[in-house]
Write a structure and sequence with these properties.
Blueprint lengths: L1 E9 L5 E9 L4 E8 L4 E6 L7 E4 L25 E7 L22 H6 L12 E3 L1
Antiparallel strand pairs: 1-2, 1-7, 2-3, 4-6
Amino acid sequence: MTTKAVCVLKGNGLVQGAIQFEQKANGPVVLWGCITGLTEGQHGFHVHQFGDNTQGCKSVGPHFNPQSKKHGKPKDQERHVGDLGNVTAVKDGVANVSIEDKADDLGKGGNEESTKTGNVGSRLACGVIGITQ
């Protein structure tokens, strides 16, 4: 059985995009998509706790972290489930996957905020992940 989902991303400015999710049986979740309107460089990508976007991206809560772990790299044992690392936007502002304002220091920044958010800064776009057919 294959489960599919999609997240349409919208920001306050020009940032927008769509991310597709797919999981076959008990395999890993595979993500792909495109985000436009970004500044060139690295941007953090995370799944957050809530699908509440009543206050834009401010009301989505912390990173999805059901096991109460510290922020880390996607392949680290100690990481939030929602920590998906960084993606890079090229000169024309297009990235394959990215949501947040700054590069994620992957929990290695040496301060308390690093272990919570990776020091990524404000959110540029957000959306709700919904199951598709």
